[in-house]
Structures are given as C-alpha cells and as structure tokens.
Amino acid sequence: MKSPVVRVLASAVLGMALLAAGCSETMNVSQTRSYDQTFLSNYKNLQPRGKDFIYRTPDSQRLLAAARGVMIDQPEIRMAPDSPTGAKPADLTAIAEALRSQLVEALTKSGYNVVTEPGPNIMLLRTAFTDVYMETKPRGVLGYTPIGFVVKAGVDAMQTVMENNDILGITLQAELTDPKALIFELVAPRGGNKQVITFDQYKQQMQTWGQRLACQISNSKLPTAQQTDCSTLGSTG
User: Fold this and answer.
1) 3-state class of 47 per DSSP?
2) pTM score, two decimals?
3) Which of 9, 62, 107, 191 has its CA 20 to 30 A from that of 207?
4) What is the chain's alpha carbon radius of gyration, rounded to the nearest angstrom?
5) What is the C-alpha separation between 85 and 110, in angstroms, rounded?
C-alpha cells in the first residue's frame, strides 16, 4: 500500500507536468524553443513528454518511498527578457502565492503530507514561473495599485493581476529534492504564440498542473509497468 506521502507527491508532480504519455523521442531541452535555463540544477537530462520535459533520477523510487512529507518553497517569478511590461512586487507576490496555493491544494487532496518546516525525509518542491511575457492593459486611475495595498491570497490574487495585465506566455519549472539528492525535474512551456491566456484557461491549467505533478511524483517511485497515465488527468492543454 502506498504511503500518503508517496501518493501526494506523485499527484503533485503529475499535475504540474501536464504530461502527454507515449512520446519516446529523445531530445535535449536546449533544442526546443528558448526559455530560462537557470532555475533548475541541470537541464541536460530532461526528456520530452508531450508538451513538457521531465527527468526522474534512477534513485527516485527509493527516495520517495522514504519520504514523510513535502515542503513547498515560495515559487519564483522571472519575466521574459523581451516582455514589453515588467511586474510590480505586489503582482509578483500574487502570482507566486496563487501557484503555491494550487500546489498545496493538489498535493493535500492526493494524500500528501504538506509541511512548513524542513527535516529528515522531508522533500522540497521548488517551482518557478519563468519567461512570463506580460502586457499591461489600458486602465483608469482605479486600476492602479494604491499605497498600503494588501495582496490577496491564492487564485483570487491572480485574477486581479490578470484583470490588469495580459499574459501571453509562461513556463512552469519544478524541481523535487530530498535534503541531499535530486528526485525529479520538470519544464512545461505554455503560450508564446501571442495569444492572451485568459483567467479561466490559467485556472484550469493550474488545476491540471497540480493534479499531474502529484501523479508524476507518485509514478517516480513505481516500476514503469505500474505507472499511471498522468496525461489523462485534468485538461488536455
């Protein structure tokens, strides 16, 4: 029987990965469209799975089997170098906390023990939204951030950001480690086609990322024949 930690971690990784199963072609991630390659420890071992790129270490099954919980670090936000608009600190915080709240929800629903303190056999999930391509919408005086503004929590905060800005491209990156070793890496580019990502699309994508990330973490501890097809979870985007 799988431990709650293993089941939760598996679901979390799957959700974030948005994997499309059945792609056996090998390709170095640097051969694909350009995006930030400074967040993860190493990009050389990533292999394509549908729209995404993942790497599970050979020791992932043992490390996940021993895990007692997972700590989710505050996500990093990195703007695309060619983004016509930057982002205010409040907007960056809102985007980061929206991502973390979705991951906490997905992992908790999957049975993982989400903790707030490091310790023995506690996994660390580091995530980032990189290559954020954003354009500010025209707005009146009420659309500006007043002095003393308090950032909302979770997905509501992201909705406020997207009411004032158009997001046309974004890349999700994730790295799962135990205190001493790498377990899993993910790169999931989205957008980049100059089409605005709507809030409903973003929300659905986040839910799917969370479900598939958790699923992929669980897969990391199982033999190939016993792994779940995580690509069937959530949307097909």
Assistant:
1) strand
2) 0.73
3) 62
4) 17
5) 37
